[in-house]
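Dear colleagues,

As part of the handover before I leave the project, I'm documenting each prediction I ran so the next person doesn't have to rerun anything. This entry is a single chain, and its sequence is reproduced below.
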Amino acid sequence: MDNFRFYLLVLLAIVQYTTSAGTNSTHLDFVKTSCKTTLHLALCVNSLSNYAASIKGNDQQLAKAAITVSLNNAKSAAAYISKLAGTSNKKSREYQALKDCVNSMTSCVASLTQSVQELGKMGQFKGQSFVWHMNNVQTWVSSALTHQHTCTGGFYDRSMNGKVKDAVNKRMRSVSQITSNALALVNGFAVRHKEVTDNP
């Protein structure tokens, strides 16, 4: 009897593991398929793979996860650039560009924070109310992307070529690509929700 129970428990564990593995694979496939709509596919899959289990094939959760990743990266970049601005031995124009970039990234973080909060409440909105709140999310993510471009735009002058400019551009390139992906996934969620609403 004891042996029977033991084998039964082992069999149950195997079934649960197999089911879990299959489910996780399905969730990851959803992320990979959704990321095909973005400009930076590999980066999209890499940044969202760890969220696949919580996304569970849900467009809203996918969009929220994408913005959350963007927000976390924006916060990290803002802290990094702020630290650069606080170090000595900077040219006056270089220092001003860094300060302006910090201001832009502060606005960027605020926009993405609003987006995450708004998107988290989307399930309670319907019809025109949903459209209005969805437009808010899209506007804020677009605004965040603009703030990121404004940051790097401050270093356009060739007189600022050097390690600081290269460091900022490298960091911001990744942040902008992640935010661009997030915007594409947000737009995809908006379109699919409209299709479902129009064709119940």
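The chain has one domain: 58-198. Residues 17-23 have pLDDT under 50 and may be disordered.

All the best with the project,
I.
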